[in-house]
Write a structure and sequence with these properties.
377 residues, alpha/beta, Rossmann fold, Immunoglobulin-like, 9-stranded mixed sheet, 5-stranded antiparallel sheet
């Protein structure tokens, strides 16, 4: 179901996978715009994460370079397998057909997970503008697959494990344009919606930032994990935003989010618990952080206050993985609870660090001295 082809006349060759071996459901013909496909971009050093990329274009065209191929190659640089989706477009096809293509793409990638070298439970979807709407639609309209279907692809579930909507339309009616095509995905969010990393800009007048805040507020109300970044500068349709070194930081922020959520590794997360005493007393206000030596592993951290008597616990859901870490302890104040006097107790954050090896079911009993700490400049 894959062929080596040229997508255009510019000599850029990629492997392309047709989502359906035969004519796609609802197809009006057999021309290029009637055939939904994925272009396949596999990294040299894979970490098992996969992302389906949905270029924008108002459900009328596809910005396939800066919101497609270039994004895929950037993802490859992080060890993520990327699949750029060419979904069917209006006016021939309604956005509900585009959603059918997106759902099929998720099923298809999962079906071939072993061949692609990915984990079937770490398949996300990243989309720009209309492609962002499509990603949100896939996150809020999914099923677990049909185990009795004769087509093995249809046996797979189509819920993305996470989504990355970038300057996405989320509610056409509230935007005041194309309400029929951009159905209100914010109103479809539930506690079963996957986590989201959301990016937009204040200057965007094509898709105002409140389209992203609508979706974020819905995620917050449903108690689903989400991170929202609204950059002041940046017009619509910037893709990776290489020409703006500030707004372009969204890519590094996304990489951190993926790592923190555990999407870049198969290693299981572990709980860490223990106690911390400094000069034989519990710290008033401190942090303990475990920074992994493996660049794909998530960190773990806990805040320690006088209320906890030096005890800390990092639950496995937000914990690190087993292995070597740099353990950092930061002291931020010598008072707890705070007072109304405005008195100062620490002129600078103080830090202690050492290399530790974490493993499951271990308990850390830390006894440090004030002299072990250094001011953080």
């Amino acid at each position: 179901m894959t062929d080596d082809v040229l997508l255009n006349d510019n000599g850029i060759g990629v492997e392309v996978a047709r989502l359906w071996a035969e004519r796609a459901p609802g197809a009006e013909g057999d021309n290029v715009l009637d055939i939904p496909v994925l272009s396949v971009h596999l990294p040299d050093e894979a970490n098992g994460c996969a992302m389906i990329v949905c270029p924008g274009g108002g459900y009328r065209s596809l910005a396939s370079d800066h919101e497609g191929l270039q994004v895929a190659r950037w993802l490859n640089g992080m060890g993520i397998a990327a699949f750029v989706l060419r979904y069917r477009l209006g006016p021939t096809y309604h956005s509900s057909v585009s959603l059918l293509d997106a759902q099929r793409a998720i099923r298809y990638v999962r079906t071939r997970a072993a061949e692609f070298g990915i984990a079937a439970d770490r398949v996300g979807m990243l989309g720009f503008s209309a492609g962002g709407h499509l990603s949100c639609a896939a996150a809020t309209a999914w099923d677990g697959g049909n185990p009795n279907d004769v087509d093995p692809v249809e046996r797979e579930g189509c819920r993305p494990d996470f989504i990355v909507p970038i300057y996405a339309v989320t509610n056409g009616a509230k935007r005041g344009r194309k309400a029929d095509e951009y159905h209100p995905v914010d109103e479809a969010v539930s506690e079963r919606t996957p986590p989201a990393f959301i990016v937009t800009t204040h200057e965007d007048i094509t898709v105002p930032a409140n389209q992203s805040t609508l979706f974020y507020d819905a995620m917050l109300a449903a108690n689903v994990g989400a991170e929202l970044h609204i950059f002041n500068d940046g017009e619509h349709g910037l893709g990776l935003m290489p020409g703006d070194p500030d707004a372009g930081q969204w890519t590094q922020l996304l990489a951190r989010w993926l790592r923190r959520r555990g999407f870049l590794t198969d290693f299981p997360r572990i709980a860490v618990l223990g106690s911390l005493l400094i000069d034989e007393a519990a710290p008033a206000n401190a942090w303990i952080t475990f920074l992994p030596e493996g660049h794909n592993q998530p960190l773990g951290r806990a805040r320690i206050t006088g209320r906890s008597a030096g005890l800390f616990e990092i639950f496995a859901a937000g914990g690190p993985t087993a292995g070597w870490h740099e353990m950092q302890v930061h002291l931020v104040s010598a008072q707890f609870p705070y007072t109304g006097t405005g008195a100062y107790t620490l002129a600078a954050v103080r830090r202690y660090s050492e290399r530790v090896r974490l493993q499951a079911d271990m308990r850390l009993e830390l006894r440090l001295a004030s002299a072990d700490f250094k001011d953080v400049s």
